[in-house]
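Notebook entry, structure prediction.
Reason for the run: the old model in the group folder had no record of what sequence produced it. Starting over properly, with the input documented here first.
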Amino acid sequence: MIKNPKPLHPGVVLSEVYMREMGLSQTALAELCGCSHRKINEIVNQKRSISAEMAIVLESVLDTTAEMWVRMQADYDLWVAREKAA
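New structure, fully documented this time:
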């Protein structure tokens, strides 16, 4: 069986691609999303998953799709679960 590489946590993509490209700090993104700085910080630091609700918020704030965020989170979660099961 070929082992799949670990997918990126969506928080890494959020931070390294979207926040960096848009010049957004965690605080600025939290304000745009209408959530706490802590929530963004935990997502960026891979301590919190992106929920479907947060995916919808990111969709509107970052001009992405909620499906993209949900898929990334599902891919990451599935990889983690398979590692634990192995």
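Summary: The chain has a mean pLDDT of 96.
The old model has been moved to the deprecated folder.
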